[in-house]
Structures are given as structure tokens and as C-alpha cells.
Amino acid sequence: MVFLVDSLKELIESFINYIIVECGLSKNTVLSYQRDLHVFTAFLCSKGIPDFQCVRPDIITSFIISEKQRGLSINSITRAIVSIRMLYKFLLSEGKLQKNPLNLIDSPKLWKKLPEVIPPHKIDMLLSIPGKKTKLGIRNKAILELLYATGARVSEVSGIQMSWINTEYGYVKCRGKGSKERIIPLGAKAIEAVENYVTAARPKIKNSQDSIYLFLSKSGKQLRRENIWGIVKTYASRAGIHDHVSPHKLRHSFATHMLENGADMRSVQEMLGHVNISTTQIYTHVSKHHLKSIHQQFHPRG
To answer: Which of 29, 100, 106, 218 is deepest in the core (most CB within 10 A)?
Structure first.
């Protein structure tokens, strides 16, 4: 058990009194601040740091790493950093400190979690599984090909109408968040799968002639996004892909594979329907293998 240095303990107590009396925070919020600051000061003591004034930005970074290693979530670490920020702002305003080491530290909330991506060879395995003889197998093949070909959200694929798809010119219209519409190109494999579904399978689905939607359930109703989730998970399991596979992971894979193969970010942003390019930039990570091959190909001494 690490005991707090008296000077640290006194400063924290004065801060807690301040947020109770001056800020009027709830009991639960105050308790959260107390817990977070106790953990932080215990960490400082374990590092032989007896004074808040001696804390440097790298110490804060080490604390964040240690909390991550303890298994804390990003949300919990973010809350702890907020508590520490509040403490330092109070101590600065009281003239008990002259500098704030957190000025150079971003909130962990700003850290972007890298999206999980399915390798291309596993994508091929997944897309090869649906049967080509049954109407639902043909439908499911078209759904999987379309998800990966466009990077569309599962709700967007569910909502595609018959008039929105043009296999002759190779594009599909999607209606995304805020009812914003965009046109996304289709590749040859997706065009082939969708054409096969529209001509050979969809007409055999009950009441299909009465629906405006492209993808239908067995009863002829619009295929819900929950159904599409189930289709993706079922075929991933049949393909022996034990990673957690979802329609959104196919969207991640679409974006990452496009960028890794040379697509420009603005084009990928438009196809994904991102308002801000910063959202698309999360996909600019590439595999170590890809980086190594690029280095070997283009470096003079690679």
C-alpha cells in the first residue's frame, strides 16, 4: 500500500473542499474525483515524486500508460485526466503551482482507435461461401459483394431502392446520415453479383414485384439491417473466419484496402460519406508488411 505524502494529501483535500463548496458537484462526482486523484498521487509516490510541481508531461504520459496496462478503458482514463486537469487548474488559480504539465497532453478521448480490418485473403474466403443455386444464396452473395465494394453502412444497404442501382454504368446511390445522398461506383464482381440477383433470384421472392427495395426477405419485405448483420456473421463462420466480422468491419476493410492500394483520401472520403476528412484519416494506417514492401520498393538502399 502506497501512502500519500502529507503535502499532496493536503492539496487534494483543499481541492475537494473547493469543488464541494464552490462548484456544488454531486456526491458521486466528488467521490470519482477523489478516487482518480488518489490513484494518481499513489502513482507519483511510487515514482518518488513528492510534489505536484515536479510532475512533467512525460510523467503524465507514463501514468496514462500504466492505467492502460491495468486494463482501464479509454473512458476511465479520460475521466482521470479530467480530474487531474481540474486539480491543476485549481492549484494554479490558488498560486500554489506555477506550471501545468497537462498543457501538452491530449485527452485520451482524442485518440482514435484504429479500425479492425479483414485481410484481403479472408475477404476472398468470405465472398466465396454463398451458394449460387438458391435464391437466398444468390441474394446473400450480392449483399456481401455490395458491402465490400462500396463501404456502405449496413443501414444504407438495407435502404437501397431498385431505382438507385445502375449496373450498366456501374454505380449505386446510397442515402446516408442526415438523408444525404451519394453515388458510389461498383466493381465488376459486385455488378455481376447484383445483376445475377436481380435477374435470377429477386423475381422468385414472394411479392418482390410490389417492393421498391433491392434486398428483400423471404416474405418480400425490405431486408432489415439486423438480417444483414446475421448474414455477414453466418458466412464468416462458414468461411472459418473466427475474428469478429460485421458489416462495419467490411466498411473499415473497404476504406483501408482502397488507401493501401493508392486511392486518394478525398475520393475515399466521398465514397464513405464522411463530412470531415479527419474521420477518413483514421484509415491511413497501413500494415507493417505494406510499409516494408513500399520501403524496399522505393528506397535507394532498400
So the answer is: 100
Q: φ and ψ at 253, to 5 degrees?
A: -65, -45
Phi-psi region at 24: left, alpha or beta (left = phi > 0; alpha = psi -120 to 50):
left
Percent of the chain with pLDDT over 90: 48
Grid coordinates of 204: 422468385
CATH architecture of 6-110: Orthogonal Bundle (1.10)
In 3-state terms, what secondary structure has residue 25? Answer: coil
The per-residue b/e assignment along 178-191, b for 16 or more CB within 10 angstroms, e otherwise, is eeeebebebeeebb
User: pLDDT digit string (tens) for 66-114?
Assistant: 888 888 888 888 888 889 988 988 888 888 887 788 776 665 554 555 6
Residue type at 9? Answer: K
Helix, strand, coil shares, percent, the chain, to 5: 65, 5, 30
Q: Superfamily for 120-296?
A: Intergrase catalytic core (1.10.443.10)
Instruction: Note the pTM of the prediction, 2 decimals.
Output: 0.61
Distance CA 199, CA 192 (A): 11
- Report the pLDDT value the prediction gives residue 110, as an integer from 0 to 100: 47
Give 55's pLDDT tier (boundaries 50, 70, 90). Answer: confident
Domain regions of the chain by residue span: 6-110, 120-296
Q: Is the CA virtual torsion 184, 189, 194, 199 positive or negative?
A: positive
Q: Distance between CA atoms of 43 and 41, rounded to whole angstroms?
A: 5
Q: How many CB atoms lie within 10 A of CB 28?
A: 8
Say if residues 296 and 271 touch (Cβ distance below 8 Å): no
What would the grid cell of residue 203 be?
A: 423475381
